[in-house]
Amino acid sequence: MTALKQSQRSSLYRVDPLRVEDGIPVFSAADRYTENYTQIAKDHIDRMSEDSANPWIPDELWQELEASTRALVRKYSRPGQKILDVGVSLARVIEQCPELDRYGIDISRAI
Ligand SMILES: C[S@@+](CC[C@H](N)C(=O)[O-])C[C@H]1O[C@@H](n2cnc3c(N)ncnc32)[C@H](O)[C@@H]1O
After folding, report:
1. Which of 75, 90, 103, 104 qualifies as a cystine partner to 85, CB 3.0-4.6 A?
2. Is the CB of 44 inside a 6 Å radius of any atom of ligand 1?
3. pLDDT recorded at residue 1
4. pLDDT tens-place string over residues 68-82
5. pTM value?
6. Residues 20, 26: contact at Cβ < 8 Å?
7. In angstroms, rounded to a whole number, what is the distance separating the alpha carbons of residues 14 and 6?
8. Cα separation of 43 and 18, whole Å?
9. Atom number, ligand 1, closest to the C-alpha of residue 85
10. Is the shortest distance between the CB of 69 and ligand 1 below 6 Å?
11. Which residue has the higher pLDDT, 49 or 97?
């Protein structure tokens, strides 16, 4: 399939969103997978608002994992390049990479 030019598409996206909620394009219908992640995100946010802790892993491990991901991003990117975090959640990794042109999507609208 050849890529369509922007002028040939009905929207900015290659596939039109199902709907737009609060300015956020929604591409997938709700199902058990999305509902599960919505609940996980709600639990996460609720817990973080209590004490800033990650409910599933110790803080030290969380920070270590994020630092190693940031190191990989820095190793394989150059300033000004675009990066898309699929599963961006609270954007904790890419928020620390201001040298990049950052984008994020997430299956959950709870975050
Ligand atoms: C561990 S968090 C990611 C943390 C994030 N990258 C950061 O830097 O803080 C995983 C995220 O992936 C999202 N997710 C899971 N499956 C997904 C999918 N199929 N498409 C998009 N996001 C997804 C979840 O909702 C969750 O917010």
Report:
1. 104
2. no
3. 42
4. 999 999 999 999 999
5. 0.79
6. yes
7. 9
8. 26
9. 6
10. no
11. 97
87 lines ligand 1 (CB under 6 A): yes
List the alpha helices (DSSP H) in 1-111.
32-51, 59-76
Q: Which is nearest to 88 in space by CA: 67, 74, 102?
A: 102
Which amino acid, residue 50?
Answer: E
Say if residues 110 and 88 touch (Cβ distance below 8 Å): no
In 3-state terms, what secondary structure has residue 46? Answer: helix
Atom of ligand 1 nearest to the CA of 66: 8
Q: Determine whether the shortest distance from the Cβ of 106 to ligand 1 is under 6 A.
A: yes
Between strands 101-105 and 82-86, the pairing is: parallel
What gap in Å lies between CA 26 and CA 49, rounded to an integer?
26
